[in-house]
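Reading a protein record of the kind used here takes only a little practice. Think of the row as the fold of the chain written in a discrete alphabet. A record is reproduced here so that you can trace the correspondence yourselves:
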Amino acid sequence: MLHVHCVHRLRLLLLWGSLLFGVVISSPTPRKLFGEITSPNHPKPYPNNNISTWDITVPKGFVVKLNFWQFDLEPSESCLYDYVKVAQSFLNSKQDLGRYCGQLGSATGNHPGVKEFVSKGNRMRVMFHSDFSNEENGTLIPYKGFLAYYQAVGEYESSTCRRGALGPIPNRQRPQDSSQTRSTISTELSVRFNIFFSLPRTPSPLRSGRVCPWQCP
């Protein structure tokens, strides 16, 4: 009788433990306002036959802004072999922001350059794809992949005329050469909140050097 009672208590403990564990793993993941994503093995060459997907979600009321700071993929016509694809949302694959590959200045491919990718909502998907080989005329080319930063910005932050900015800003400038190593980039990100006030009919100082006139309605 005592043995049966102990077994019953043990089963209850296991049940409580499984419920508790289930609650822990199903709890919502905090949504970060900024971060970075890299191709596999970056800054070392990325592997062949790889498909990696990043689904970025920021709090509602914000949009996702993404920039590539380093980009070094195998170039090809229409980016058929190795590529990075950016989509507005991971719920609708048709809302693509483009497919990109190649190196800065390469004759083929579609290098993103300094392009800023901005989602319409609070979600964005980035997908990396590599094929079975990175050889050219029998020579193995060690392409290093990509490094990208994303941040949550207010919906008005993504427009041309901005009065305030809420979002993390990298402390250092973008490297000019995509072959520079990751150590040349400061990964320290800070959240800045700037509010500008101006008199009617006068220009207001804006971040990034933009000046937008404001008038009374």
Notes: Residues 2-8, 10-29, 160-173, 175-217 have pLDDT under 50 and may be disordered.
